[in-house]
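Appendix B: complex inputs.
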Amino acid sequence: MRASVFCGVSLDGFIARPDGSVDFLDGHGDVEGDLGFSAFLDSVDCMVMGRNTYDFVVASGAEWHYGDTPVFVLTTRSLGGPSPEGATVEPLQLGPEETMERLGATGFTHAYVDGGVVVQQFLAAGLIDELILTRVPVLIGEGIPLTAPDAGDVPLEHGGTDVFGNGFVQSRYTVRR
Amino acid sequence: MRASVFCGVSLDGFIARPDGSVDFLDGHGDVEGDLGFSAFLDSVDCMVMGRNTYDFVVASGAEWHYGDTPVFVLTTRSLGGPSPEGATVEPLQLGPEETMERLGATGFTHAYVDGGVVVQQFLAAGLIDELILTRVPVLIGEGIPLTAPDAGDVPLEHGGTDVFGNGFVQSRYTVRR
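Resulting structure:
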């Protein structure tokens, strides 16, 4: 069971503002294609999402970007309300390791892990194999960092970098074990 | 009077560990050349350094990397002890704006600004024109961030990215006014 992160990051290392907003990803001119997101989504067979991120996406009323990929929302509470149109969503009340075990036992092979706290927890637990980070040309000063303060060093191997015409710099890293 | 930053950054956005150490920049295999540092140093005619960084460099006993570039150390105290061998060092008890005014009035045209707190202060004051950041493939979880929390958004323009064989990704940005 592999797990990957695919997200935008401010130049100072934040994946969202303190309130979960990712508006700083916008306003950088035309983006070529979808920055490889569709190809990435095709490479996973399930998604693990934090509760805050799920609520934020639902509250925003934005289009559901994850197609029919089964999305497991880590939460201790009922999801409440209807799922977004077209979404396959299931709550899961498990920690990071148990989540990966359960998904692997169910037959899944590659999870897309998304959401500030969840990414931090999965990184700290050594469960992330790959990070695809799109570096956005803005400093935002504060927000939700990619890593939790007590996670220790996580050495990575650079797998390649693509530069987009609007100044986005996307780099792929695998976690060294 | 222009000001530029040239530094290494962990993938999660820290320019030093909490104690000022930058050991996470090491251990990434052979570095090709000097990552453009000599050329950058040739492009500046003075350097502004924070007191913590100066003390850290002096205490480390490391070779002085800045040649005969005049280095102004922002500090409210005497520098104490001898300067490193070959260094041209002068203390300056001024804030960011006053420092830039003074250096400009003295005839300098391009400052290399270095050190966690000083970089944060100069960025917050809108005094940085250019950032050359070398992204190092490791997450360190905590440290001195590139930006201060209250600095607000700083929009940037991407000027180019070079990828080095050891996985370092160096990007150049200019600050949009």
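The interface with chain A takes residues 9-14, 24, 123, 131, 133, 135, 137-142, 145-158, 160-161, 163, 167-169, 171, 173 of chain B (CB under 8 Å).
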